[in-house]
Amino acid sequence: MNYLAFIFNLLIGTTLAYCQQSSKPPVFPLLSLSLDSGYQWLDKPFFNEINSEVKFIGLGEFSHGGKETILFKSKMIQYLVKNKGYRRLMIEYPNVVLHKINDYLLDKTLTNLDSVKAIARSTFGRTFLGNTSFYDLIIWLKQYNLSQPNDMVSVYGFDIEGASEAFATYFMNNYLIPFDRKNALDIGANANIVFKDSITSLELRWFQANKKTLKERLSKTSFRDLFYDVEAAQNKLLHAGLQKTNIYKASAFRDSIQAINILSLNDSKAIIWSHNIHITTSDYVVSAANYLKAIVGKQYYCVLTDFFNSATVWLISNEGSLSKKTFYVSPKTTSYLLHRKLGIDNGIVLFKDLKSNQIQVNNIDRFGNQATFGKGHPFDALVILGPVTPFIFN
């Protein structure tokens, strides 16, 4: 009995110690997340935090499948574009898939906003970005670019997942057929069309043999973007090989390449849209952000999201089927403890104001596996969201 009382007191003492050490950290309330409303309220937490030294900002999501995470990140992007001069949005997606969207956003002669939505819908389909909330962001970016034609925002992808398969069709239609129709037909005849990686491999060989000619005939920006896509396709093939032998090395390789891709487009201040697990700077997490921060240091700023009670989000199976599931917050997480102590349902809290070393953040992967992380300095700002609901596909 005395032993049980000791354990009980130890557990209660741990929670109280968190609360006492935190001594009521300032929490900045979330106001309207609509893109039609004001964004100046974000100055309160971020005006001094995100200074001129910060070149890369990671915007995380504890799950890919929640509506409110997309709404907050969209609002934050609006603030960063309008108030902080960020002109590149980098998405956890293969860049080769995003060309149509980026081209449309940057074309000063195309003004039909319905076309933006149609292109986004055809690009993302039934994926985690195929939803009305994200489409609203794309439309807002187009509106911004039309109003600032000499200072526009571009969209790039930095992931390698799906990069090889998408590259095969894109490179064939946009480069191989226009530049070398005979070899295009030969590659199509000799490759295994069921497995697009085989087409990609042959196309990559053609690129290496004709790189000098392409560099001469393309604009500097066009060749840079093509080379970026080629590297991503090559790295995806390497990643696929690692997945067959060591999934941990494959995961670390993917995040390291994500960081390289982000750094390779460093001519503009960039916003990084990704899952928490890729952009956290937590100890013992092999993340793109940890690779990135090791190089750029204080030029990187990390904003993670979390929930305080429950979250119902979309998941995707290994076979690609979608389903909804409700998750409940871990009682050891920062969001839960702040809610318990201060009654906070939503808000933004800064890492520098949290004095406890027991910081923990919820993490839900796309398959529905839930865990926590938080050792060291996992974020610079944590956004606590109220009830999180599944986004609406469109």
UniProtKB/TrEMBL annotation:
Record Pfam families: Erythro_esteras
Matches recorded under InterPro entries: Emycin_Estase, Hydrolase/PRTase-associated
Alphabetical GO biological process terms: response to antibiotic
Highest taxon, organism lineage: Bacteria
Name this protein carries in UniProt: Erythromycin esterase
